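Protein fold
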Amino acid sequence: MLKLHREFSMKYVVDPGFSKMKSYNPRTGMESLLVTPISKASATQRAGRAGRTSAGKYYRLYTAFNYKNDLEESTVPEVQRTNLASVVLALKSLGIHDLISFGALELLFALGALNKVGELTKAGRRMAEFPLDPMLSKMIVVSDKYKCSDEVISIAAMLSVGGSVFYRPKDKQVHADNARINFHVGNVGDHIALLKVYSSWKETNYSTQWCYENYVQVRSMKRARDIRDQLEGLVERVEIEISSNMNELDSVRKSIVAGFFPHTAKLQKNGSYRTVKHPQTVHIHLNSGLSQVLPRWVVYHELVLTSKEYMRQVTELKPEWLIELAPHYYQLKDVEDDASKKMPKGAGKAAAI
C-alpha cells in the first residue's frame, strides 16, 4: 500500500486561497463556519503537498500582491476560536484557579458552577464529572430535582452525537419527511422528539431495521447509545438517582431550560426571533419541528451561522420559567410578554405546555 501511495502521490495542487474555518463568539454563544482567506503559513503548507515524491506543480488562484498584503502570517489558533467553558470547568475541578483571563467564567458563574469568588460549588463539582458542555451538564444535574434524569441523559446523548439524526434519500423524500414528522406530533419540540426517537429505538431492542424504516442514521444512534451508557455510569457516580417522569414533559423541559437559559429567544412581529440576552436576530432552523409553528418563546441548543443565524434543536418554554430557574440572570422586564402584539398568522402557538 505504501508503494502505491508513493506511485500515485499528488503532483498538482490548485490553491484558491480560501478555507472554511469554524469559530465561536463567546458574547453571542454562536458558532459559525465561514469561508475565510487562508494564511501565508497555510499557503506554504499547501504548496508542500505538490510533488512530495516527484516533480509537481502548484497553482495559486490569487496574485502575489494578495499574498503579500492580504494574507495573515499564520492562522488563528483553534484554542482562540473554541468554546472553552468545559475546559475551564475541568481545570477548576483539578485545583487550577488562576483563570481570570478566560471569558468562560461568566457563563460558569451564571450556571451556578462557580461562586462569587470563583470557587467550584457543589453543583459545579458534579458538573465537572461529565465530559460535556457545561450547559448539558447543568441540565443533567437539575434533572435530579425534577425526577426525570432517565429522559434527560437520553436527550443529552442525542444532542452530543452532532449532525443530523435523520437522513432524506432523494428518491424517498416524502416518506422520510413523514417519518420525521411522526416524532414531532403535538409540536413537542426538537428535544422531546429526540427523546422519542431514542425511546422508540430502545423499545425495538436497538433494531437496525427500525432505523431503516424510520430514516434514522444507524451510526448516530449507536453512538448515542454508547454516550448514554457512559452518562448513566457518571450519573450514579455523582449520586443522581436514575428516575423517569415521561408523563410530565414539563419537568423535562424545565431541566432543559435550567441548563440552557442563556439560549432563549422571543418571537418578533416579522416572524424572526430576538435573543433575550445580547439581542440579535435569529431564526428557527428549517429542519426543526417548530419551524412552521413559531412558538412565542423558545430555548435552543446552539446557534449556527450559515446564510442566516439559525437556532438548532428548539423547544417551547414558558417565560415565567426563566424567572423561576434563573432569577440571577433574568429580570421581570426581560420576560414580560405583551400578548397584545400582533404576530404572524398561526404563530405563537405550539404545544400546550
